[in-house]
Every structure is written in C-alpha cells, then in structure tokens.
C-alpha cells in the first residue's frame, strides 16, 4: 500500500475480509448524516456540434434535457452498477451544464441523508450524463470514416464532499 491510500496494510481495507474476499462495508452502526457530493467532467465536441445543441437542432432531440434525465437516473441506480455501493436515499440531484466553444462541462451535485457518502452517485451522474450527450450527437460527431477522432470525455472528478452529523 502507498501512503496516499490511507491504509497501513491489507487489514485496514474495509471492502475485504481477513481472508481477502470482497465484502460490502457494514455501515449499520454509523449515525445518519446529511451528505453532499459534487462531481464534474467534460465532453469535447466539434464547435459545430455545440452550436447545433445550442440551437436545438440535433436530430435525436433535446440533448441537454435528455442528458439531465440520464444523469439523474444514473445517480438513483448507482448501487446497481457499482458492486460495493449501498442503496442510499437520494434527497436531491442538481445538474449544471456549461456549453463552451468546443466542450460541455457538467457538474452533478447529489444530496442524501444516511450512513454513507454519495460521491459515487455524483460520479455516475457525470459519466452517464456525458455518455448521453455523446449518444445524442454521435451522428454529427463522426468523421468521414465513421470514427470520433476529437470527441472525448475527460477530467471526471469529485470536486467536493461534505458530511454534517445530525
């Protein structure tokens, strides 16, 4: 283990048993806390694609509205796709899209009241929201060979997380 991991040895890992088997962390004895996490990422697109999104001229429909729904759905279903995540009560999801000249930035803020954090939910919201954008614009992003040489999702990260004990 590296010093950055926060664990001195394998016995400090909370997602493994003493025998090294994967397990879900028991959070049953933890107090409920108000928690919030914000994640962000970006998708790089051709400037013409950004303009088509702004003008609502993408053949598949309203790109950002569809991506917003996808992001929220992903937040609500994170426990089904990340094996060791707990199902948590989501109390709020906010999405914010920022259209730039050659990219779209997305921030997803998730709030919950419970025994564990919601950063994975925020990350799932960002990655799915950006994947939905890609899906909605792929027809106009393809080059003459049917490839996506400049389209990319990057810089996905947790911007902040907070916990307020009741």
Per DSSP, what share of the residues sits in E-state strands of 2 or more residues?
25-35%
Determine the CATH superfamily: Molybdopterin cofactor biosynthesis C (MoaC) domain
Q: From the alpha carbons, calculate the radius of gyration and give it in angstroms.
A: 19 Å
- Helix and strand succession? EHHHEEHE
Known CATH architecture: 2-Layer Sandwich
Report the span from N to C terminus: 34 Å
Rounded average pLDDT: 87
Keywords: Lyase, Molybdenum cofactor biosynthesis
Function: Catalyzes the conversion of (8S)-3',8-cyclo-7,8-dihydroguanosine 5'-triphosphate to cyclic pyranopterin monophosphate (cPMP).
Pathway: Cofactor biosynthesis; molybdopterin biosynthesis
Subunit structure: Homohexamer; trimer of dimers.
């Amino acid at each position: 283990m590296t010093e950055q991991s926060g664990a001195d040895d394998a016995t400090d890992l909370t997602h493994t048993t003493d025998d090294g088997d994967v397990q879900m962390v028991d959070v049953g004895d933890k107090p409920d806390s108000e928690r919030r996490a914000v994640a962000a990422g970006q998708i790089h697109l051709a400037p013409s694609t950004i303009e088509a999104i702004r003008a609502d001229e993408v053949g598949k429909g309203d790109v950002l509205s569809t991506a917003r729904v996808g992001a929220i759905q992903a937040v609500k279903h994170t426990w089904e796709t990340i094996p060791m995540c707990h199902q948590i009560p989501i109390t709020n999801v906010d999405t914010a899209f920022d259209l730039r000249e050659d990219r779209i930035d997305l921030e997803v803020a998730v709030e919950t009241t419970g025994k564990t954090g919601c950063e994975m939910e925020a990350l799932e919201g960002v990655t799915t929201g950006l994947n939905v954008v890609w899906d909605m614009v792929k027809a106009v992003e393809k080059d003459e060979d049917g490839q996506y040489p400049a389209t990319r999702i990057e810089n996905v990260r947790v911007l902040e997380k907070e916990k307020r004990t009741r």
